[in-house]
Write a structure and sequence with these properties.
Blueprint: H1 10-19, H2 30-41, H3 58-73, H4 77-95, H5 112-130, H6 138-160, H7 166-181, E1 187-190, H8 207-219, H9 221-224, E2 240-246, H10 254-264, E3 268-282, E4 285-299, E5 310-311, E6 317-318
Parallel strand pairs: 1-2
Antiparallel strand pairs: 2-4, 3-4, 5-6
Helix pairs in contact: 3-5, 5-6, 7-8
């Protein structure tokens, strides 16, 4: 995360700067900045109670503008300052490339209360003006009806489409297969949650890694039961498989990886090393390419042909 850049390696900080490039205001020309402001304030950052990028949050933005007009007309300057200060500070931080402004709704959650308050005030003012010739209770009833329709509609949408993200669907489908199939004839462990190896630790839990660990807890029968790994059951017929989820921009101590593999060679033979690409897509293509790496070991001293072939440094199997 850009805001915690001091806790990241230099390389990871540079990656995040490029990753959130579009969430930093372009200060090179007024026209470019104006277009960026319109796109940002009608996009994900304003998606309350619904909306999205490419102008999908325009209605919320319009209601917020109406609310600002109401507050200006009432000369409530102190309240205006209180409501707009968080966004103003966020914008200054974004101009300094310290924290993104907009970009994704989860990065603008600190603005959600302000957006909801302004949108509510704007909606109330619009309804009151639109139904001023109607009975006094009409605007209230219309507002309650719209809120109820919004809640019911959201529930129907979530039932019809439980996973809104195709990336999440793919990750869930892979986890369902992986944590069952790869544990069927082996002792399958995670280098982070089971072995707690140094090179698998991270300062903060990255989003894709959090999804991986969540799916692990759900779809790995052993992890779901919170049972420890049974390394005493490892044999030539039942190898040890170590899963390592790698996020490309998180720093990795390659020396620690090599040391772990060397230490494992004292008691085990590395018979296979597989990599499963875990691409994450956005509307422009591949956003990031994570990897699930699987190391397969068998104890030394057993039948060398029972569990397959030795693993060579070139990454191929040999017999």
């Amino acid at each position: 995360m850009v805001v915690a850049r001091s806790n990241l390696s230099e390389a990871a900080g540079e990656v995040m700067q490029r990753y959130w490039h579009d969430a930093f205001p372009p200060l090179d020309s007024p026209g470019t900045l104006a277009r960026w402001l319109v796109a940002t304030h009608t996009g994900d950052a304003m998606a309350h109670p619904f909306g999205g990028d490419r102008g999908a949050s325009t209605l919320t933005t319009v209601l917020c503008v109406v609310a600002l007009g109401v507050l200006v007309r009432r000369r409530q300057g102190a309240l205006l300052l209180l409501l707009l200060a968080p966004a103003a500070l966020n914008f200054i931080a974004a101009a300094m490339h310290r924290y993104p402004y907009g970009g994704h709704i989860r990065l603008a959650m600190h603005l959600a209360p302000v957006v909801c308050l302004l949108a509510g005030l704007g909606a109330a003012a619009s309804l009151e003006r639109g139904f001023r010739r109607w009975p006094r209770r009409t605007p209230t009833m219309v507002a309650l009806g719209l809120l109820a329709a919004l809640g019911v509609g959201s529930m129907v949408r979530d039932i019809a489409r439980p996973a809104r993200s195709e990336n999440d669907q793919r990750a869930r489908g892979f986890a369902r297969w992986f944590w069952t199939a790869k544990a069927f004839d082996a002792e399958l462990v995670c280098v982070k949650t089971d072995l707690r190896l140094p090179f698998a630790r991270s300062i903060c839990l990255e989003g894709d890694e959090a999804i991986y660990l969540c799916n692990q807890r759900i779809y790995s029968p052993r992890h779901a039961r919170r049972e420890p790994a049974r390394l005493d059951r490892v044999s030539a017929e039942r190898p040890l498989r170590c899963a390592w989820f790698r996020v490309p921009w998180l720093p990795v101590d390659e020396a620690a990886v090599s040391q772990w593999l060397a230490e494992m060679q004292a008691d085990y033979r590395l018979v296979a090393r597989e990599k499963y690409p875990q691409p994450v897509f956005n509307k422009r293509g591949v956003q990031s390419l994570n990897t699930l790496e699987l190391f397969e070991f068998v104890p030394r001293g057993g039948d060398p042909h029972a569990a397959g072939a030795d693993y060579t440094s070139a990454g191929t199997r040999s017999r």
